[in-house]
Design goal:
- The two termini are 39 Å apart.
- Helix 17 runs antiparallel to helix 18 (437-452).
- The chain has a single domain, classed as Amino acid/polyamine transporter I (Up-down Bundle), CATH 1.20.1740.10.
- Helices cover 65% and strands 0% of the residues.
- It has 19 helices and no strands.
- The chain has helices spanning 9-17, 27-38, 41-45, 47-54, 58-82, 88-96, 99-136, 156-171, 177-198, 214-225, 233-236, 245-275, 293-301, 313-320, 324-358, 377-393, 396-424, 437-452, 457-481.
- With 506 residues, it is mainly α.
- The radius of gyration is 22 Å and the shape is globular.
């Protein structure tokens, strides 16, 4: 039987019972936690990508993506409050739907984390290259600052920053909560300055036509913009520390998503209303795919005088409207903050690999700890090399979309797990219960499926290939090596104080 291996929820909960956290978080603290986790790389990097897909209609794309995140987060919160242990969606699926689907979810999460780290590295590269050019007059040749699809050979800055982060992870360097809070403040301050300067210069005529490529373009942009919201589930993982979670969790989740959506809409409006956000089109009026060599040629013909051509959209916008030095400061803020996001994404990816290895689904050697640095150096090094290669040769939009495919699949499975568990184990204690679960969970599943199939055919083909590779590994190795299949069910006391690995802010 393919679905006969279900890891006993009681074993997972025995791990969770080791964890005893003080309930101290109220609604306000949860909203602030959510804002800090959500606002990050996506809005800095993907604005140009969204403009090329939807034009000014990307405003609607932000709303659609935020609504899908909201219903998915409510489902995620129920399982996170029941199982505050490491492994995230992979662990939940193992307990509800069995090993095969847990493997597929874990494999999708590996795709999400690793490729997202590559996307952030490429986004950082765009701001770094722009900053060097505009602040110091140093111009890195296109051949060394872009991948093949954009007319270059290799994105060397993205490659090098990924290797540097890998080295830090191997030796065990992780930023403190204080340092991370400073970086969040830097990003929020940069976006606030952008709003203050761009909004007064808005020209409403720039919003026409609103959706030059129709609702299909809006949907495609929403699927990409989902990347700008990932991190919202950090609120979900705080359920065990929340006072009156049934009241405060929805306020924290919906409140933080609503505030961030408004923030994103104002930033996007500032870009659209000042420099315009119309996509570059072919002669027949169809859109040119973002990140393609065709778009690179179109941008060259337009002398790069369009926001869709920029790799640092917000900084470029401020320079265009007469604030070049402030634009450089925005670029500097992104340059300082984004490497830490690469670090957190890669740490999250190695954590998923670590848990799967510990369950026997991957070789246990992968989770070996370095005798000196006490870090899982083998899997960290392998991950770093793969992420560096992604960053070196793929455009940011393609990487973000591929990462989103893994995220959307995992969250759809979480929503399905909530529905199944409500029927198979209705009496289990749930510190937080998804409100109107028979409406919210199906909406989450449908929303994730809708955005998933709004991704490009190229992205879906890559996801399918990744899934096939994962199934081959499962049936040739993992199924036979699985601890659960061999009758071993462990309780991991070291996870007592480890919350489910949230997707870091991006």
């Amino acid at each position: 039987m393919l679905f006969d291996r279900v890891k006993p929820l009681s074993a997972i909960l025995r791990t969770a019972e080791k964890k005893s956290l003080h309930r101290s978080l109220g609604a306000f603290q949860l909203v602030m936690l959510g804002i800090g986790a959500i606002i990050g790389t996506g809005i800095f990097v993907l604005t140009a990508e969204a403009a090329q897909k939807a034009g000014p209609g990307m405003l609607l794309s932000f709303v659609i993506a935020g609504m899908v995140c909201a219903v998915a987060a409510l489902c995620y919160s129920e399982l996170a409050s029941m199982c505050p242990v490491s492994g995230s969606a992979y662990t939940y699926t193992y307990a509800v739907m069995g090993e095969l689907l847990a493997w597929v979810v874990g494999w999708a999460l590996v795709l999400e984390y690793a490729v997202a780290a590559g996307a952030v590295a490429v986004g950082w590269s765009g701001y770094f290259v722009g900053l060097l050019k505009n602040l110091f007059g140093i111009e890195i040749p296109l051949a060394l600052s872009a991948g093949p699809s954009q007319g270059g050979i290799v994105n060397l800055p993205a490659f090098l920053i990924t290797l540097a982060v890998t080295a830090l992870l191997v030796v065990g360097t992780r930023e403190s909560a204080y340092f991370n809070a400073i970086l969040v403040a830097v990003k929020v301050a940069a976006l606030t300055i952008f709003i203050a300067l761009a909004v007064p210069a808005i020209n409403m005529q720039q919003f026409e036509p609103f959706a030059p490529l129709g609702f299909t373009g809006v949907s495609a942009a929403a699927a990409s913009i989902f990347f700008a919201y990932v991190g919202f589930d950090a609120v979900s993982t705080a359920a065990e520390e929340t006072k009156d979670p049934q009241r405060n969790m929805p306020i924290g989740l919906i409140g933080s998503l609503a505030i961030c959506t408004i923030f994103y809409l104002i930033v996007a409006s500032g870009v659209i209303g000042t420099v315009g956000a119309q996509p570059l089109l072919r002669a027949d009026g169809t859109g040119i795919p973002p990140g393609s060599s065709e778009l690179a040629e179109a941008c060259k013909a337009a002398a790069d005088q369009a926001v869709v051509c920029s790799k640092e959209a917000l900084a470029w916008t401020l320079r265009e409207i007469g604030w070049p030095q402030i634009g450089n400061l925005i670029g500097l803020a992104a340059g300082l903050a984004l490497p830490s996001v690469v670090l957190m994404m890669m740490f999250g990816q190695t954590r998923i690999f670590f848990v799967m290895s510990r369950d026997g689904l991957l070789p246990e050697r992968l989770s070996e700890v370095h005798p000196r640095y006490r870090t899982p150096h083998i899997i960290t090094t392998l991950t770093g090399i793969v992420v560096a290669l992604f960053a070196a040769f793929f455009p940011v939009g393609a990487l973000a979309d591929i990462s989103n495919s893994g995220t959307l699949f995992a969250f759809a499975m979480v929503a399905l797990a909530v529905l199944i568990l409500r029927r198979t184990d209705p009496n289990r204690h749930r510190p937080f219960r998804t409100p109107a679960v028979n409406i919210v969970a199906p909406l989450a599943i449908l929303g994730c499926v809708y955005l998933f199939f709004s991704l490009s055919a190229y992205t879906l083909a890559l996801f399918a290939g990744w899934a096939v590779l994962g199934l081959v590994i499962y049936f040739t190795y993992s199924r036979h090596a699985s601890h659960l299949g061999r009758g071993l069910v462990e309780v991991h006391e070291e996870d007592a104080d480890v919350p489910p690995s949230p997707v870091p802010p991006i």
